[in-house]
Amino acid sequence: DDQSSPATTLTVALHTADPGETGTQATNETAYTGYVRKTVARTTGGWTVSGTAPTVVSPVANIDFDECTGSPGAAITHFSIGTGVSNYMMYSGTVTPNITMASGVIPRLKTTSTISED
What we know:
The chain is mostly beta strands and 118 residues long.
């Protein structure tokens, strides 16, 4: 992984279970029909960052994923933020409430979705 230059966009993935501290964005990633990761600018226009130890990160605007058109699989319980390179995951957090999947559902991470960094 070449993580030496700063990422200008961050990739957001959805998960059906905690990807864990040693996981990647592919760990427990949802695979419903129609799913694709989303990118968000790595700027103050894309993310709100507040606090110190822990730092709390949340999206400035809702992040809408593509509609489930089949094979919904398990509920979405977690999301992760990464660089989009080799599934590298920087942060992960829980989705509250969990998103119950079914055909026609458009998963949404709201601006109240947060990830805390210790």
